[in-house]
């Protein structure tokens, strides 16, 4: 397959191929978690484990085989100064999102794969191997969009025929459900939530927060602290495919492929379906 947006006939097959890569990476992650993590701190004081590195190595090989010639921008390679340059079409990969949850007792860590085309995340996979939860979403070349969830064990076959369609719910006028980071709730995000009419607040790790918005269990996910593009792209594609949106707090589009900023993402808010 040549670089660029996939042919319409291959859309679901491409989404399934990305999902299969994530399931394989999940198997590697769980094996290393059982054997011992080998954690250390990176230059930015964030943790990295042997599972991050092994998952990224597998994903790079898998994704380069699925979309030859499409740049793969992956977290650990960028951290080591080995990042590729983005093009009009490129992949953003977080091989283990929620490393703190991985090191701790929580199963709320994910494998994130996002395909960005002309500045917009179009395909997204979020897979949580410890809880066997798979989310997949895509906005196709035709303009149609679909989002799914499934229970799949790490290393298993994808079987996309069994995926369950999901959609964002309309955001209620009063009493919204908000989801925020379990480990990285910053003061600005907390203040924003305090100013909203929130009936229920959920605390969840990793990109699983996007999944809750995409399946209609939450209406809003704000993150006013700085993150990186590979933390967001897969979930952005998923929420977009489910009928929601992800924007800056001022309503403008999130930028992607910002090498000069080392792929840092400004504050964002993920929304369910808006009237």
TrEMBL record:
Primary enzyme class: hydrolase
Kindly give the membrane topology term recorded for this protein: Peripheral membrane protein
Q: Does the keyword Nucleotide-binding apply?
A: no
* Main localization category: membrane
Name the reaction it catalyses: adenosine 3',5'-bisphosphate + H2O = AMP + phosphate
Output the InterPro entries linked to this UniProt entry: CysQ, CysQ/Inositol_MonoPase, Inositol_monophosphatase-like, Inositol_monophosphatase_CS
The positions annotated for binding Mg(2+) 1 are: 75, 94, 96-97, 231
**Which Gene Ontology biological process is one annotated for this entry?**
sulfate assimilation
Superkingdom is Bacteria
Where along this sequence does the record place binding of Mg(2+) 2?
94, 97, 231
List, alphabetically, the SUPFAM superfamilies matched. Answer: Carbohydrate phosphatase
Report the locations given in the UniProt record.
Cell inner membrane
Q: Which cofactor does it need?
A: Mg(2+)
**What GO annotations for molecular function exist for this entry?**
3'(2'),5'-bisphosphate nucleotidase activity; magnesium ion binding
Gene Ontology cellular component annotations, sorted alphabetically: plasma membrane
Similarity comment text for this entry: Belongs to the inositol monophosphatase superfamily. CysQ family.
List the protein's name.
3'(2'),5'-bisphosphate nucleotidase CysQ
Its source organism is Ancylobacter novellus (Thiobacillus novellus)
Designated gene of the protein: cysQ
């Amino acid at each position: 397959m040549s670089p660029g947006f996939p042919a319409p006939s291959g859309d679901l097959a491409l989404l399934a191929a990305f999902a299969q890569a994530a399931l394989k990476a999940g198997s590697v992650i769980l094996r290393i978690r059982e054997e011992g993590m080998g954690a250390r701190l990176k230059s930015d004081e964030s943790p990295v484990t042997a599972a991050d590195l092994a998952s990224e190595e597998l994903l790079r090989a898998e994704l380069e085989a699925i979309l030859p010639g499409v740049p793969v921008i992956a977290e650990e390679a960028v951290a080591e100064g080995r990042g590729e340059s983005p093009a009009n079409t490129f992949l953003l990969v977080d091989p283990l999102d929620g490393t703190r949850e991985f090191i701790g007792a929580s199963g709320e860590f994910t494998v994130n794969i996002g395909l960005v085309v002309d500045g917009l995340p179009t395909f997204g996979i979020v897979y949580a191997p410890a809880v066997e939860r798979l989310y997949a979403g895509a906005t196709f070349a035709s303009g149609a969009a679909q989002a799914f969830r499934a229970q799949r064990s790490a290393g298993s076959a994808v079987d996309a025929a069994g995926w369950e369609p999901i959609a964002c719910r309309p955001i209620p006028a009063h009493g919204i459900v908000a989801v925020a980071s379990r480990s990285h709730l910053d003061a600005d995000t907390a203040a924003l939530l305090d100013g909203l009419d929130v009936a229920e607040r959920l605390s969840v790790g990793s990109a699983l927060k996007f999944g809750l918005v995409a399946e209609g269990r939450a209406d809003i996910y704000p993150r006013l602290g700085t993150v990186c593009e590979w933390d967001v792209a897969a979930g952005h594609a998923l929420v977009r495919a489910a009928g929601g949106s992800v924007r800056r707090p001022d309503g403008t589009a999130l930028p992607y492929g910002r090498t000069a900023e080392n792929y840092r993402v400004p504050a964002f808010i993920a929304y369910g379906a808006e009237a």
